[in-house]
Amino acid sequence: MHMTHPHPRRTVLATAAAALAVTGALLSAPPATADGAAPAEVSPHAAQTIDDIGASGAWWVNDLQHFAPAVQARVARLLFSAQGLDLSSYRYNIGGGGTAVTTPARAAQDFHTPDGSYDWSKDKGGQTFLKYAAKYGVQDLIGFVNSAPAQWTTNGQSCGGQLKPENEGDYAKYIADVTAHFAKQGAKFDYISPFNEPDNNFGDCGQEGMQVTVDQRDDIVRALGAEQQARHQRTSIIADESSSTVGFSTEVPQWISQPDTAQYVSKLAHHTYNNPNDGQLGNVYETAKTVGKDSWATEICCFGKGTTGWNQEYDPTIDNALLMSRIIYKDFATSHDSAFQWWVALAGGYGTDPTARNDTGWNDGLIYYDPDYATNGNQTLYFTKRYYALGQYSKFVTPGSVAHNVTGAPSGVEVSSYDRDGQWVVVVNNQNTTATSLNLHFNSRTPLRAARAVRTSATENWAKAAAPDVSGSTVSASLAPRSITTYVLDQKARKDVNGGKRHGSSTPVTGALRGDQSGKCLTADASGAALATCTGGAEQTWSYDAKGGLRTANGYLTAGSSGPTTTAGFTGSPDQRWLLNANGQILSEASGKCLDVSGQATADGSRVILYSCNGGANEAWSRV
């Protein structure tokens, strides 16, 4: 973290289609529930597989090394055990030595000595919690670097400089040596991030950090990748950890397209400090599809005062926790990231009061400690609702969980759904100040049973909540005001024809797709796609299935170089697979681009194309 403080139009393609009048985004639901509201829909089609959910061990470990061993052990349990957050990833900060860094706690020690040898006794606090993470079996251990050792930077400092090109090989060997050392200690890094927020220069020296220009990022990746390959190290590289999604979407395609670079990159990493809108989050998905790598959201913190944008504030209440949960929801449901990693797990900057909101602290930690511990001996831990909010995901959405989009949720309610080993995990944010009813339909032929409900609210922390009612494939619940609730639903396995068990049979959902801006329906044939007045014809009735296919009477919607058309058969290729997002975006899995009405036109015959997502109403589609 850098903490300072016009398209051509065409004729109408086909007549119409009817629609089933419901509210919310995308395709039809089963009959309305008793209260008259159509249920929200869990997509039959899988969006992405979740790799991990975690947090970083930067900075606070330099303070916690001075705490009593019993307190350190308690912190490890709170972060890594099943009774705590049960984090499935942990980011270990490989220090750069802290030369010229003005904040002592952000001056992480490095292991490299001037004569080229290593002092593995350094970074005692960091090593302590890395080893705890390994002991608890955290799935993904990630080593990330803010700055190379100062002797290899252009200004001889751990901040404000750049890695000297002539030392890129030395730096790669250093990281590989650190990786090898910790592997022998039982803490094998699964991923390495060789630079962090490379778009920042960190010239204020409030923390470690080095700028890495776009034309150097591929050089560093290749140097490290080749070094690891030569040593047969099975540690993957993630990059580039841009501080904003705009920088990520603009710059990643530039450096990763350089010869022999992409082969070394396992995951694409971005931060979200620009408070991205839905269009910018859609661009993350487009970037990932363009490059052919999954994207991870690897850092965020420090939002507040009622928004998800950067603000100085300390707020341990449910209000900030709900903002955090909204960010997680959008990362998984809009940019379709495969991981979410919070910034620092612990912090000392609570300002004037660890138990109450104030404008002098920061919302960067999950748990807080007294910054004056060294003089007053206070080693008390102070919990924020953010800790419990993250746990509503991390304790249940485990590695390998498969995300399914949810459309048509009530206003103020955000729902994400995951298929996990034959169970459904549903995380629901109720941003409303009043209790809100949720009816959620699963497009599954497999019977459901409510197994568990856990809630965090203004007065509750991971409290047992009332189980939802289940009728067929529809789940109904009353959501407490300003709350985050996780529901676990069992699916009864059914025997297949060979005597084995299966869980997954699903039914397509059908209906018409109406543009929010135009009020006209999507219609398409082999010559292209366009808007047309909604009239009830089969040509506008779309069926969406578990394979991601969108089919009408004219065939399957298929992405092409000149725009979407329909083709007769389904091949399973990405150009025939689509994601229907809760915000109304329809994304092509081939390109990551949005189904868009060219030029924001609204007349019959207006051309429907694929275009980079921008969050406009001409890219939003609803059920009619």
UniProtKB/TrEMBL annotation:
SUPFAM superfamilies: (Trans)glycosidases, Glycosyl hydrolase domain, Ricin B-like lectins. The keyword Repeat does not apply. Pfam families: Glyco_hydr_30_2 (PF14587), Ricin_B_lectin (PF00652). Residues 507-624 form the Ricin B lectin domain. The keyword Cell membrane does not apply. Keywords: Hydrolase, Signal. GO terms for molecular function: hydrolase activity, hydrolyzing O-glycosyl compounds. InterPro entries: 6GAL-like, 6GAL/EXGAL, GH, Glyco_hydro_b, Ricin_B-like_lectins, Ricin_B_lectin, TAT_signal. Residues 1-34 form the signal peptide. PANTHER family: ENDO-BETA-1,6-GALACTANASE (PTHR42767), ENDO-BETA-1,6-GALACTANASE-LIKE DOMAIN-CONTAINING PROTEIN (PTHR42767:SF1). This is Glycoside hydrolase.
